[in-house]
UniProtKB/TrEMBL annotation:
Domain Peptidase M14: 1-209
GO terms for MF: metallocarboxypeptidase activity; zinc ion binding
Cofactor: Zn(2+)
Annotated signal peptide: none
Identification of the protein by name: CPXM1 carboxypeptidase
UniProt KW Plastid keyword: no
Pfam hit, one: Peptidase_M14
Biological source species: Dicaeum eximium
Annotated Gene Ontology cellular component terms: extracellular space
Gene it is expressed from: Cpxm1
Keyword Metal-binding: yes
Length: 242
């Protein structure tokens, strides 16, 4: 109710237990990159459906119940497209969110599916009325308009354990982050305008599930569908499963 004028950037960021949910997912990036550096991918270490580390599953691990619930939800349903919605900036970010050079606060760190992620981010950003406005001003210091209002997450600021990276590495899901508005806490009277700014973007983004290859992988003898068949595309070191 205070609005952004009286609420700092940290307001509402942490749970009652003091956990930042946006950085609370298992870091699968480090294990993958270590395996790549040792030439173990994909014959000894997978390039997709990367398992959750054992330490993360312990009862005393610093994992919020909300995070555990979302992971169980993602494992139960085979999502393929997702967006998580944030406030406080006007930009769409895409994985990876964690820089590959661990000591760098900013570093371009694209996924093997960088072209697809850039497309998804651009679809949202170009249809967003606030981002596409010719009168748009910077929210803070970064001039994202000159980048087309999209940026690789790690090239903005590195984050370990983000939901975007986890979705991509642990499931089939391609996920982006949308920073919806400069105003992190819009007043109720401003919500209709925020909705109009984002309505078409949300619809266009959802429509992108129809882009790409679709079908059913079948057994050639029985014609029965094959679950969990691994599909590889030449030149993309990230497989998906049926």
């Amino acid at each position: 109710r205070q609005g952004s004028e009286l609420a700092g950037w940290a307001m509402g960021r942490w749970t009652y237990e003091g956990i930042d949910l946006n950085h609370n997912f298992a870091d699968l990036n480090t294990a993958l990159w270590d395996a790549e550096d040792n030439d173990l991918v994909p014959h000894e270490f997978p390039n997709h459906y990367i398992p959750i580390p054992e330490y993360y599953t312990f009862a005393n691990a610093t994992v919020a119940p909300e995070t555990r619930a979302v992971i169980a939800w993602m494992q139960r349903y085979p999502f393929v497209l997702s967006a998580n919605l944030h406030g406080g900036e006007l930009v769409v970010t895409y994985p990876f969110d964690m820089s590959r050079t661990y000591w760098k606060a900013q570093e371009l760190t694209p996924t093997p599916d960088d072209g697809v992620f850039r497309w998804l981010a651009t679809v949202y950003a170009t249809a967003n009325l606030a981002m596409a406005s010719g009168e748009r001003r910077r929210c803070h210091y970064d001039d994202f308009a000159r980048l087309g209002n999209i940026i690789n997450g790690a090239n903005w600021h590195t984050v370990a354990g983000s939901m975007n990276d986890f979705s991509y590495l642990h499931t089939n899901c391609f996920e982006i982050t949308v920073e919806l508005s400069c105003d992190k806490f819009p007043h109720a009277s401003e919500l209709p305008e925020e909705w109009e700014n984002n309505r078409e973007s949300l619809l266009l983004f959802m429509e992108q599930v129809h882009r790409g290859i679709k079908g059913v992988v079948r057994d050639s003898d029985t014609e029965q569908g094959i679950p969990n068949a691994i599909i590889s595309v030449d030149g993309i070191n990230h497989d998906v499963r049926t």
